[in-house]
Fold this protein.
Amino acid sequence: MAIVRWLLLPFTILYSLIIWLRNKLYDLGIFSSQQFKVNSIVIGNLAIGGAGKSPLVQYLIQHFKGQYKLATLSRGYGRKTKGFRLVNLSDTATEVGDEPLQFKKNYPDITVAVDENRAEGIQMLQKEHQLILLDDAFQHRKITPTCAILLFDYPSLLSPILLLPTGNFRDTFDQTKRADIILITKCPDHIPAADRETIIKKLRKQQPSAGIYFSSIQYLGPIAIQGLQEAPQLRNFHILLLTGIANPKPLYAFLSSEKLNYQKLTFPDHHNFSQQDYQKIAAAYAAIPAANKLILCTEKDAQRLDLSQLSGIPIAYIPIASKIENEAAFLENIQRFLPY
């Protein structure tokens, strides 16, 4: 696979030129960007998926929901609807997207909306809200947010940075200059001093003034959603791990570190499960010879599962949270961008 991606280098060069030109046209003011009166925080990344945007959105919801009339606005990736839509608890992931549905279920008292056109979405929300969290909107240069938080997962900054299709970056690294705050995610528990210095130096070449912070994933206790009377003790089960996310490797590492007995069944990010998929999942579960067994998935995957298709099978999901170094300083830095 790596060799094939290097063979695509000419397409990477062409893609890089297109992205560079687009950004230059915005920088020169030829393409216009709109700033709104309502406070807005963009949470985004330069690479494709898997940087930990959703856990950070939930972290910010938890922090700000008591201070502001709050809304989140997402594209609603994978939904089959179009345009602006408010997310309701009765919605499905095919109607609103898995991540917005997750936000609504975890925080039913706030406004959660989807719109592929973020500028139009803000216009719909701004009169009734004081702060809008824009999930995965760093590339949406038609809007100028009050604060832009740019995420990089830790391994990506210790590897060569290449654009698609050879690499995993969808935007040029020099766009780091537009970030107000930079958060390095998915860090190990102990960050070697040399790695920390390498990362900071690399970022400072593009953005000399933004606050740089480091964070890690915190896996929380599993939540039972079918066929279990209480939260399962995972060490007592043989696990069929079902994932349809961009980067499941940190979850694999966590389960392995806990010495849990599991086997993997992987699907693409935001995958909408078909009837054939459910048959494959059920067959993989049935093939496990252990008496005590269950399906474990991520919280995002749980939004897309039709439990009726897996009737009688115990299922749980494992939530995650962001654990941020120098948390007080991180939050204070965000707050100083918000005028009220």
